[in-house]
Prior knowledge:
By secondary structure, the protein is an alpha/beta fold. It has 10 helices and 16 strands.
Amino acid sequence: xKTKIIPMSEENIDSEALAEAGGIIRNGGLVAFPTETVYxxxxxxxxxxxxxxxxxxxxxxxxxxxxxHICRMEDLPxxxxxxxxxxxxxxxAFWPGPLTMVLPKSDKVPRMTTGGLDTVAVRMPGHKxxxxxxxxxxxxxxAPSANLSGRPSPTLAKYVAEDMDGRxxxxxxxxxxxxxLESTIVDLTEDIPVILRPGSVTREMLEGVLGKVxxxxxxxxxxxxxxxxxxxxxxxxxxxxxxLTIINGRQENVVMEINRRTRQMQEKGERxxxxxxxxxxxxxxxxxxxxxxxxxxxxxxxxxxYRILREFDGEGVTVIYSxxxxxxxxxxxxxxxxxxxxxxxxxxxxxV
Length: 352
Ligand code: TXA
Ligand code: MG
C-alpha cells in the first residue's frame, strides 16, 4: 500500500483532502492525524474490522482498548450507557482538550474497539485538524497513538511515516505537536474518579472540578507488580533502542556521575546519549547530548521527550542517561513526564 502524506495545519485546512481522508475512514481504511497531544492512528470506531486493522498496523495486542475520538458533545450519548454528571462537568471544563474519560459503553461500540471491555474511553481533542477530520469521517474515530507498539508516540509526521509507511492509507501532516505526551485518562465508572494515566490535565485541575480524584496505584508505585486498570499501561511502552537509566540527585552530582558512567561505557565501545536541560547540556561529554528544555517550564520537557528518544534511535545510541524530571507523586505535568520516562527506562532509576 502506498501511504499518502498530506500537509494540513490548523491555519490551513484543505477541505478537499479532508473529505478524501474522511472517505478513507468511512470505507474502513486508516488515516493518521495530528492532535494536540501526539499523532493518532485513526479508523472508524464503529466498524469492528477497522479496529482490527488498527491493532494489526500497530502490532498491538487486541486486548488493549482504543480511545474513541469525537468532535461534538451531542455525539457522546449514543456511544455510552449514560452520561454521568461528572462527565458533563469535565467536558465543560476540559473539552476539546487533552482529557480522556472512561465510561460504560453502549451497544453501538464494538467490543473489538474496547478490547473486550464494557467500558469505552472517549476524548474530544483540542486540535482543529483533528476535529474537522473526525467530522469528515462520520463522527467516531478510534485512535491510538500512531506508533508501532512499544515505540515512543510520534510528535512529528516523519515519525508516523517511519512506523506506518506502507501500512495505512494516509497521513495528515500537521507539523510538530504542541503537548507531546498523551492525554490524561480518568475512569468515571467507579464512585470516585480515578486517573489511569497522568497527562497535562493534572489531578489538581480535575479535583478543582470534581472534588476528590484518585490515582491508579499502578501509576504511583510503578514497578510494584500492581495491575494497572488501563490495559495499555501494563505493556513496556515508549521504549528507545538504547538502554536508558535515570540518574537523580543534586545537579552537580548528577552531572559528575553521568560523565563518569559515560566514559566507562565509551571505553566498552558503547555509543552514549544524555538527556539534560538548559542548565546542564554544556557540561556533558557524551556522544550525543540532548536538551529536553527548561526546568522552570516543564511543558518544554514534555514536548521534547519522545522526539529525543526517537532521535537517539536514529543515531544508533546504545546507552542513554537522563536527568530526573520531578517524581511520580508530584503535582503538575511533572508526574506525566516521570511516568513516561520511567517506563522508557524500564524503571531503572538511581540516586547519587
Ligand atoms: O492523547 C491521546 O490519548 C492519544 C491521541 C491520539 O488521542 N491516544 C492514545 O491512545 O494515547 P493509546 O491507544 O496509545 O492509549 C490509550 C490508553 C491505553 O493505555 C488503553 O489501555 C487505555 O487508554 N484505555 C482505552 N480504553 C480504555 C478503557 N475502556 N478502560 C481503561 N483503559 C482504557
Ligand atoms: Mg500509545
